[in-house]
Amino acid sequence: MNPAIVFGFGTMLAWGFWITFGDVASNSIDPEMAAFVSYLTATIVAGAYVVVSDASVAVTNRGLLFSAIAGVAAAIGVLSTFIGVTVGSTAIVSTIGGMYFVTAAVISIVALGEPFSMQKVAGIGLALVAIVVINQ
Q1: 109 and 116 in contact (C-beta within 8 Å)?
Q2: Distance (Å, rounded) from C-alpha 91 to C-alpha 84?
Q3: CB–CB of 19/94 below 8 Å?
Q4: DSSP code at position 27
Q5: Which of 28, 13, 51 is closest to 37 using CA atoms?
Q6: The pLDDT of residue 135 is above 80
Q7: What angle do CA 90, 49, 107 make, to 5 degrees?
């Protein structure tokens, strides 16, 4: 099986558990604190993985910059998610939040020069329709 598919399913399952348990946590403590504990734990687990794996610890300025920008985006996303599930439905927040690939597709086309195609437009359109249908 294609490793990208395996890791894609791993991502899907992990994010599903993350948002579900984040909902429970955010209804037990302040969502901002739940988000902090969630990402602090993620930092420790990811750091431990880097230590025990054969991952390179070499860094570049570009890599550090974009990793930091990604971290800021992740922090905004986790805070938005945890607060969102506190004030609204987990199904709605997770469905809309799960469409992050639409944002990634647009950014990759506009800023990274990835090819634009009618298939991508159709996929993004269908994803947007899915948000509406699922949340009715």
Answers
A1: yes
A2: 10
A3: yes
A4: T
A5: 28
A6: no
A7: 55
Global confidence as pTM: 0.80
Where does residue 108 rank: exposed (0-12), middle (13-18), buried (19+ CB within 10 A)? middle
Distance CA 22, CA 43 (A): 16
**For residues 27 and 22, what is the distance between their CA atoms, to the nearest angstrom?**
8
Residue with structure tokens 């610890």?
57
CA-to-CA distance for 9 and 11, rounded, in angstroms? Answer: 5
- Tell me how crowded residue 105 is: count the other CB atoms within 10 A of its CB: 17
Whether 78 contacts 35, CB under 8 Å:
yes
The average pLDDT across 17-21 equals 92
* Average pLDDT rounded to a whole number, residues 77-106: 89
CA distances from residue 90 to 27, 57, 76 in whole angstroms, order as listed: 11, 37, 17
Q: What is the pLDDT of residues 37-83, one digit of tens each?
A: 999 999 999 999 999 998 998 999 999 999 999 999 999 999 999 99
